[in-house]
Design goal:
This protein is an alpha/beta fold and 247 residues long. The chain is 40% helix and 16% strand. It has an eight-stranded parallel beta barrel, surrounded by four helices. The longest helix has 19 residues. The structure holds 2-phosphoglycolic acid (PGA). The site of 2-phosphoglycolic acid has 13 residues, from strand 8.
Length: 247
């Protein structure tokens, strides 16, 4: 059985005082659930604090080089040295707002493989791609390119997050049918690409997950959890998602 993952992507939100209050409140609500993993992807300045609260601290971004003259960047070794246990790669906001192209995403995947850093590879189509009926081919191309040099024996580093761009932050999540179609497609792709262990790779959904739709989304057998933006900023709301994942 695959473990389930609930991940908070705080994006560029919360001040120091707000992050601290969030962690305190969530800690008081939280209890471990077997076969379920909780992850928090805060702004990098709060990673140490998330780790100090004994939560899984994940980085939203990093640079693929190991060290050197790269002003403003953080390496995987630096992140590992403060307790970071996973990173996001290929989030659509990084792809579109910060022009992260396929070559950079490939370099980031290679860097994770070198550093043995678990990573969540995000993929997702725009509404126009979906309207043209090309969403399956588009996601296949995105994953194929990102995983071009990724070795099957490193499968345990990989989690995939399907996040349709039109569902992110829009309040309009994908339907259970749309999610199921894509997740089964992604799983088939992973099995073709990475072989017999690929069935152990978690595939998450992201895009306007909230307590209103979580039960339906988590009831899909092909969904191994969620990457949550907006609804993760309120600790009570996020805790409801943690409970919904085990329901
Ligand atoms: P959202 O963001 O939950 O606010 O739609 C999800 C994400 O971008 O990871």
């Amino acid at each position: 059985m695959r473990k389930k993952i609930l991940a908070a992507n705080w994006k560029m939100n919360l001040t120091q005082a707000q992050a601290e209050a969030w962690l305190q409140e969530f800690k008081s609500l939280f209890s471990l659930v077997e076969q379920q993993e909780l992850r928090i992807y805060p702004s990098a300045i709060y990673l140490k604090e998330v780790y100090a609260f004994e939560f899984h601290a994940g980085a939203q971004n990093f640079y693929f080089e190991t060290e050197g003259a790269f002003t403003g960047e953080l390496s995987l070794a630096q992140l590992q040295s403060i307790g970071v246990s996973s990173v996001l790669v290929g989030h659509s906001e990084r792809r579109h707002l910060f022009h992260e192209n396929t070559a950079l995403i490939q370099d980031k995947v290679k860097a994770c493989a070198r550093a043995q850093m678990p990573f969540v590879l995000c993929c997702g189509e725009s509404s126009s791609v979906r309207e043209r009926g090309q969403h399956l081919a588009y996601i296949e191309a995105q994953l194929k390119a990102a995983l071009q040099d990724f070795k099957a024996e490193q499968y345990s580093l990989l989690t995939v997050a399907y996040e349709p761009i039109w569902a992110i932050g829009s309040g309009l999540s994908a339907s259970v049918e749309q999610i199921t179609e894509m997740h089964l497609f992604i799983r088939h792709f992973l099995e073709m690409q990475l072989g017999p262990n690929a069935h152990k790779i978690p595939v998450l959904y992201g895009g306007s997950v909230s307590f209103e739709n979580a039960a339906d989304i988590f009831s899909c057998p092909s969904v191994d959890g969620a990457l949550v933006g907006g609804a993760s900023l309120d600790p009570q709301h996020f805790y409801q998602l943690w409970q919904a994942l085990s329901a």
